[in-house]
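User: Can you write out an input/output pair for a complex, sequences first and structure second?

Assistant: Here is one pair. Inputs:
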Amino acid sequence: MRFIHLIWRNLMRKPFRTILTVGSVFVAFLLYGVLMMVQAGFGVGVDLAGVDRLITKHKVSLIQTLPYSYAARIDNVDGVAGVTHGNWFNGIYQDPKNFFANIAVDPESWLAIHPEIVLTDKEREAWLANRQGAIVGRQLAERFEWEVGDRIPLDSPIYQLDEGWEFVIEGIYEAGDETYDETQFFFHWKYVDETPGWWQGEIGWYVVQISNPDNAPEVASRIDQAFANSSAETETSTEKAFVQAFANQYGNIKAIVTSILGVVFFTLLLVAGNTVAQSVRERINELAVLKTLGFTDGRVMRLVLAESMVIALVGGLAGLGIIALVARGEIDLQFLPVLFMPSWAMALGAVLIVVLGLVAGAFPAWQASRLKIIDALGRRA
Amino acid sequence: MSDSLVSVRDVHKVYKRGSEQVDVLDGLDLEVPAGDFVALMGPSGSGKTTLLNLIGGLDKPTSGSVEVSGTRVDKTSGAKLAAWRARNIGFVFQFYNLLPVLTAERNVELPLLLTGLSKKERMKRVEIALDVVGLSDRRKHYPRQLSGGQEQRVGIARAIVSDPTLILGDEPTGDLDRASGDEILNLLQTLNEDHGKTIIMVTHDPLAAKRAKRTVHLDKGALVNETVAGAVA
């Protein structure tokens, strides 16, 4: 504590340089947070996907559909506690840029198997009663300023209809779990299925609830065996594997994020390290004076390291602080569907701040500690 | 153990410049009793600053012994030597060597940061030290806002704030005009006579040396002459 003033005044020796360095640390940790949120967003269903849920899809691909009749057969498989289904609709609201997931489902069974979707009883009843009804996530509703009762037109390039598809918002759901996506749009499968010309008993995928998560591989195998050698063979996997495979369509997000962050932090290390090293070079004489006054080599080293740590702490904590506000929804980043910053990523960020501060300051601090007083002060003869 | 505050015995100091060896000090002996005020004079390269460095624990002799206040400085090193320096030695530099980012009072406070004193106690001592050098009203000024003489007075306040046994001055008036130099010499004399501080000062200026109680002349690393104030050399 006694040295705080000295450390602070040294940092403020060239305030513009210090502010720029702190700013670069701030931006780097902001980027770190955003990338971690992107990674979490892609894997949001992965980590906390229902461990008691399986996904059954066509063996060939997700684009191929399965017969509706499979629902009852899956329900009869030993170990299955419930079944529901979904179809990807690919509806567009006004402009393709307004992308959000819109999925045709069987409302009653879908809600039963997805307790993460939280609706009021009134909303739930209204949705079940209205075949044209839809429910939307809170974030999606806020994004387009939708309210219950609004009529929402969607165009689907896959399922085209001359008069267009129109849905009535009957409920705005909250995520019962912070990782659940609040940007989805669910509506009645029957609304499309019963419209002449479409689907007619075709299902995109089944969501299967199992009685015991430990038996997931066995139950998945039993389901697939039930449809083996049929015209529509199935492939059943855990919801986690399914979501991971879906996310992997965009590439290996984790590898991309890790690569970008690696480059950013390496560059940052050079920037912060150079700032501290330059600062030390500029005051060789002053450091020698401190040693003359009785400051030990270790004390001088710690002073330089402390300066490096302050730069890393101020910039890093400010960056992570902004990310925390974004994650809490107090700052809106609309390009991220799920604003979720895992606590491990925050903890890793804090560790990175400390590592950055120590590594960036290590060499200049070591140089400062090795400084010979008489050489630095030119005191010979 | 010697009765003198500073006891330098048969000290040799050899520097290497490339393949060449330079004998800076050549078997030098010096005794400085407590309360003395010694001026070290001699031509450039005679070893004055090197001798001051050895007494202050900034450098080690190649051979011989340096004892200050009962401590074998030549046998002490590392953190122990740094702590000893903080307790026993006050340095006054030719170019003041104040930290430009700190105010006068914060510069004076620096040696006290190494003690266990509270901030209140530290500031009280800083106030006394600045009062002794007559700069209480400049305590909040930065070095760039002070004249050369005032900067050196802050340097002296920093040297005495921790109440050291010995003050070492390396040409403390070398960068000052005559009037400012006189003020600094008056101050050093006051510290010696009124406050009992032992002072060893390197100088090129015979007028400055006359303010000391005795002057030691060095040449080629050896003590060649000694003048006591008021006596004929």
